[in-house]
Amino acid sequence: MKHFLFVISAALTFSTTVFSQKGLHVVHGCAYKTATEDADLYTFASSEEAEHIVSEICNAMGVSQNFDIRSANVENALATNDGPRRIILYSTVFLKKFNEDARTRWAAYSVLAHEIGHHFNGHDFGEPNPGKRKTMELEADRFSGSALRLLGANLDEAKAGIETFALQGEQAMHPSAKARTEALANGWNQMQERLAKMGAGIPTPDSNIPRERDTDGDGIPDKNDACPEEYGRPLTAGCPDGDEDGIPDSDDKCRYLKGPANWKGCPDSDGDGIPDHEDKCPKEPGYLTDGGCPLPDRDGDSVTDRADKCPDAYGLARFQGCPDTDGDGVPDLEDKCPKEKGESYRDGCPGTNNNSINHSESKVLKRLKFDQCLGIGYDHFVEKGSNFIYTGNVVQMSYTIMRKYGGVVSIGYSKTTDENTSSPSSEVYTTVSPVLGIAPGIRVINSPSDIRGYVFAGIFSNIGFVSDDSFSIFQLFLVCNFQKIGFKAAFLIGTEGAKGYGIGMQYCF
């Protein structure tokens, strides 16, 4: 049960985290390419890759992450506020394509570092003055250049993002591409000089030193990249993985939904072992035979319709889904008096207070359920004397009447051996003879669910014609019946110290 709960819990956590969708109204914001004003956007949880890039930038620059990051339906990337809360929004599709076009993984770093620079410098996104807005953009670009130098990008890699963007001339709120490239290079150079003065020992990235070819710019050299012309992730050997579930898109049946490998990248939200795209009830654990839906239970009694003898009436599992209105242990389906508490041997009807028995009751008493039984048993006993060992094995068929008082009549065959231990040759005499037994009894257990127990006591004897080998054995035995099936256990004792045991079973009707 704990695993199921765990699976369900994991599925719920997954759905609320990965697919959490929120609306956001942006009053003012600074996008990487343009300004954004008065826009209604949809935001989603950020990807692991974006979170990792942001964490690397903040750690390198020694700044705390005083903002939230979320993916959204923005054109590229955007820094904004939601009241006192600072936010960075980015387009997953844009970042992926941007890296591919720039042929370097540093392009995505450059864009996100630019937006972090806005928050780091405490920029007012509602600033109406175009000159000041352009200054804000250049400050964010300088921050981006410094961050990329600390992370190990050379100057060409740091500038690749702006150069790939193919920015046009100066806009109302954004400076020209040339000015922005110069600001980024200035930030990169200032950080380079600072590191040199500090003697930090961080090697200078050299654009002239040949690096291993990385055609798609995903940071994985072509020789190690399973998809050298497609931007990918290290976890998938350089191949694309849109939902970041560790399964390459080429092998992922649900490319935009996270899922485990055993379902080929598809989720199983309810944890029933049936992936959502094949599950008719993806939010309710169910069964494969019912298309992933729970087994039907029309009356809601927790006994499925397939096993429910009374599928339209709320009942009990012990009665296979049927009710017992009067609580007498006889289900209504078999109860001749379903609204009156009675006895099981009276088919659920009560007895009379004046001990008189009417005609219908006498019929009940004459036809008790499972009150006649046929059985088979085995008995074994041993009698040891000073110079002999007498052993008996008996197989019997029995007929039993089991009411309040009952009786057993049995007939069978015995095989006895008489071994003369005083003789040097240990002579053994074997005799086979018929056996007859009779035993009266009384009921001692009578439960509402037709479990009955009886105690019988009687004698069985062989009726052979060899007087020396005749025997009579007293038998005390218990019989317990579970509706139609009964089991016997006996203790045997005879004359001259004979002792033994008996077992058996019976079928009642």
Strand content: 25-35%
Low-confidence stretches: 1-19, 353-368
| Largest sheet strand order | 6-7-8-9-10-11-12-13
Helical stretch tally: 8
Looking at how many chains there are and whether they match, the oligomeric state comes to single chain
Alpha-carbon Rg, integer: 45 Å
Q: Biggest β-sheet: count, sense, barrel?
A: 8 strands, antiparallel, barrel
Tell me roughly what share of residues is in helical segments.
Answer: 10-25%
Overall domain count: 3
Estimate the mean pLDDT confidence: 81
In total, the number of strands is 13
| H-E string | HEEHEEEHHHHHHEEEEEEEE
Description:
It is built from eight helices and 13 strands. The chain is α+β, with helices and mostly antiparallel strands and 509 residues long. It folds into three domains: 2-198, no CATH class; 325-352 and 359-366, no CATH class; 372-508, Porin. Strands 6-7-8-9-10-11-12-13 form an eight-stranded antiparallel barrel. The protein is elongated. The chain starts with a helix and ends with a strand. Mean pLDDT is 81; it is low at 1-19 and 353-368.
